[in-house]
Amino acid sequence: MLRRPGNHARRLGDNGGLFSSSKSRPSPILSLGLIVVGALLFIAYSYRNSGGFSNNIDTTSRVEGDYLCTAEVHRALPILKKAYGDSMHKVLHVGPDTCSVVSKLLKEEETVAWGVEPYDIEDADSSCRALVHKGIVRVADIKFPLPYRPKSFSLVIISDALDYLSPRYLNKTLPDLARVSADGLVVFTGYPGHQRAKVSDVSKFGRAAKLRSATWWVRYFVRTNLEENETAIKKFEQAATKRSFVPNCQIFHLKSFQ
């Protein structure tokens, strides 16, 4: 916030006093500068309120702050494209703040994308609400079967969603996501001990995140007949090494149900 310089400059007056009785006049250059800066601030404020760049600022803040693994999806998209190739042309993302992921995917050439937001969108910006209105993003409780036909999407990406499900619902949700994918699933989940439970998580998601170890997940995949995609794992690791990509979340590559 700009502050106008006050008339408190110390100077000696004609009578030798500490303060002059005459008022100092601001420099014409200073006045012009203040006018230009004020005009720029007004334009920026108007542009922000019109949705010019506030959506990107809000989305980045929200992704990096609350949804760590959704931020990882953003970082990993170029590597996923290398690993999955044509399978990245019809993608479903499932998780909080799915609008940010879907918006980024839709900017890619020859890519169509949809999203499932498992929770409310009360704080969503106008761009996200537009995606919901168009039917590109759906607000749905993933504890129950999704209204999609088998193999509706080539690839399903999940982030920051499974961590909030109890085993009772996890046993239904993940197999259902495998059902609607044709070429596989990619699961982004947090590392145990890397994130602290928040009171806001309980109020919004119904429970604090349960961050499980890689060993737990591998055993769970075996128990639910979900097979890891070794080919995709190898391609992803090779692409990640070339780009010096070090994930902050656990990433699992699973095959779809045949």
Write the layout of secondary structure elements.
Layout: H1 28-49, H2 54-65, H3 68-84, E1 90-94, H4 98-106, E2 112-117, H5 126-133, E3 137-139, E4 155-159, H6 167-179, E5 185-189, H7 199-205, H8 214-223, H9 230-242, E6 250-254
Parallel strand pairs: 1-2, 1-4, 2-3, 4-5
Antiparallel strand pairs: 5-6
Account of the 3D structure:
The chain is an alpha/beta fold. The protein has nine helices and six strands, in the order αααβαβαββαβαααβ. It has helices at residues 28-49, 54-65, 68-84, 98-106, 126-133, 167-179, 199-205, 214-223, 230-242, and strands spanning 90-94, 112-117, 137-139, 155-159, 185-189, 250-254. A six-stranded mixed sheet has the order 3-2-1-4-5-6. Helix 6 (167-179) links the parallel strand 4 (155-159) and strand 5. It is elongated. It starts with 27 loop residues before the first helix and ends with a strand.
Mean pLDDT across all residues, rounded? 79
- How many whole angstroms does the radius of gyration measure? 26 Å
Percentage of residues in DSSP E strands = 5-15%
Low-confidence stretches: 1-23, 47-65, 196-205
- Category from helices, strands and their pairing: alpha/beta
In N-to-C order, the SSE pattern is HHHEHEHEEHEHHHE
End-to-end distance, in Å? Answer: 61 Å
Q: What is the global morphology?
A: elongated
Q: Could you give the count of β-strands?
A: 6
Sheet having the most strands: 6 strands, mixed
Question: What share of residues is helical?
Answer: 40-55%
Number of helices: 9
Which sequence of strands runs across the widest sheet?
3-2-1-4-5-6
